[in-house]
Design goal:
CATH architecture of chain A: 3-Layer(aba) Sandwich
Number of domains of chain A: 1
Oligomer: heterodimer
Largest sheet of chain A: 7 strands, parallel
Number of helices of chain A: 8
CATH class of chain A: Alpha Beta
CATH topology of one domain in chain B: hypothetical protein PF0899 fold
Strand order of the largest sheet of chain A: 4-3-5-2-6-7-8
Order of helices and strands of chain A: EHEHEHEHEEHHEHEH
Strand order of the largest sheet of chain B: 2-1-6
Strand content of chain B: 35-45%
Distance between the termini of chain A: 51 Å
Distance between the termini of chain B: 39 Å
Number of strands of chain B: 6
Shape of chain B: elongated
Helix content of chain B: 25-40%
Number of helices of chain B: 2
Chain lengths: 216, 116
C-alpha cells in the first residue's frame, strides 16, 4: 500500500528557522548569514567590518567552525560578543544550532549578528538559519566561474562581495565574464569589488551594510 | 555532503509515518528534489542506503525524481522551464523572475506492508 505524505523533508529545519526569524524580528536584530568557500576571506572581512562598525552598532558574531576556534580567536580583540558553534566535521550550520546559541546573546542590546558559516558553497545555501539575508563572498583566486557553478547561493544572496580584487592582475580571472554569469543567475543583486587586506572598495560595503542595519 | 543531512531527516519522517500507519516494513520511498538543491543522485542513493540500516526501511527502494527549474517572469508573466540555470526570461529578456519550481526537497509517499 502507498501512503501519501507530500511534506518538505527539511521541515524541521525550516520550522526552527522561522522561530529564529520571529525572535530576531521581535528583538529588532538583523542577522547576516555569510557564505563562501574556505579561504575566500570571511574572517578577514569580519575583522575589518568589526573594526569599522563596532562603535556605530552593537554587533554579535556566531562563528561556525568545523574543528577549531581559531577564527573566534582572531576576532576576540574587538570586544564584541562571539559564540562558536563547532560542527565537528559537519559541512554547514543549521537553524537548530543557531537557536541553541542565541540565548548566549543579550538580544535587547544587539543590532546585528554576523554568522560566519562553514566554508562551503553548496551545503550552507540549503539550510535556512532564520537569517535576515545571505551574503555571498567570493574571491578572485577561486576563479570566475563560481556563480554559474553554484547558482543556488548566488541566486539567493542579497549581496555579493568579490574579494582579493588587488590580485586580479596575477590571475586569469575574467571580470566581464563573471559579471555576465552573475547577471544570468541573479541580475538584481548588488556586487561590490573589494580587497579586505588592501582596503579597496570597503567603504561601499560599510555604507551598504550600515544602511541595512539602520533601516531594519 | 548536504545529502547526508537530508537523508537523515528523510529517514526520520519515513520511520515516523511507518509507525503511525502500523507498517511492518517499508518497501519504497518516493522523493522529489528540485534541481537547485544540487543533489547528486548516486551520492543520495548511497547515503540513503547507509541511513536506513537497522530501521524498518532497511530494504526500501528509493525512487528519486529531479524536478527541473521553472520560473515566472514578473514583467511579461510568461512561465519558463530551464535546463541551463540561466535566469533570464527568454520571452522578454527580463531578470525579474519568481522561482516557481526547483527548490523542493519533498517526500511524496512511502510504500509498505501493514502489520497483521
Amino acid at each position: 500500500m502507498e501512503i501519501k505524505i507530500m511534506k518538505n523533508v527539511l521541515d524541521r529545519n525550516k520550522n526552527k528557522a522561522n522561530e529564529v526569524r520571529s525572535l530576531l524580528q521581535e528583538k529588532n536584530v538583523l542577522m547576516v548569514n555569510m557564505i563562501s568557500s574556505p579561504g575566500a576571506g570571511k574572517t578577514t572581512l569580519l575583522e575589518k567590518t568589526l573594526e569599522n562598525l563596532k562603535n556605530k552598532f552593537r554587533i554579535g558574531v556566531i562563528e561556525g567552525d568545523i574543528a577549531t576556534d581559531r577564527d573566534a580567536q582572531r576576532l576576540k580583540e574587538h570586544g564584541v560578543p562571539i559564540v562558536v558553534i563547532n560542527t565537528e566535521g559537519g559541512c554547514h550550520l543549521d537553524s537548530h544550532s543557531i537557536s541553541k546559541v542565541l540565548p548566549e546573546f543579550n538580544l535587547d542590546n544587539i543590532d546585528v549578528i554576523f554568522v560566519e558559516n562553514v566554508g562551503n558553497l553548496v551545503c550552507p545555501s540549503h539550510f535556512d538559519l532564520g537569517e535576515t539575508f545571505k551574503l555571498a563572498l567570493v574571491s578572485i583566486t577561486e576563479g570566475d566561474d563560481k556563480p554559474i557553478k553554484y547558482p543556488m547561493l548566488f541566486r539567493e544572496a542579497k549581496v555579493i562581495l568579490l574579494n582579493k580584487i588587488d590580485l586580479i592582475e596575477y590571475t586569469n580571472f575574467n571580470k566581464a565574464g563573471f559579471r555576465v554569469d552573475l547577471n544570468n543567475v541573479n541580475g538584481k543583486v548588488p556586487l561590490f569589488e573589494i580587497s579586505c587586506t588592501k582596503n579597496i572598495g570597503m567603504d561601499q560595503w560599510y555604507n551598504w551594510i550600515s544602511n541595512e542595519i539602520s533601516s531594519k | 555532503m548536504h545529502e547526508l543531512k537530508i537523508a537523515e531527516e528523510l529517514i526520520g519522517i519515513v520511520i515516523q509515518v511507518a509507525e503511525t500507519e502500523n507498517l511492518k516494513k517499508v518497501t519504497k520511498v518516493n522523493i522529489q528534489f528540485g534541481k537547485m538543491i544540487m543533489i547528486v543522485p548516486d551520492v543520495f542513493h548511497f547515503v540513503f542506503d547507509c541511513a536506513v540500516k537497522g530501521t524498518i526501511a532497511r530494504k526500501a527502494k528509493l525512487h528519486l525524481e529531479i524536478l527541473p527549474v521553472k520560473f515566472a517572469c514578473n514583467k511579461c508573466k510568461e512561465e519558463t522551464q530551464i535546463d541551463d540555470l540561466i535566469f533570464v526570461c527568454p520571452y522578454c529578456g527580463s531578470n525579474d523572475l519568481e522561482l516557481i519550481q526547483g527548490r523542493e526537497t519533498i517526500i511524496e509517499s512511502i510504500e509498505g506492508e501493514k502489520n497483521g
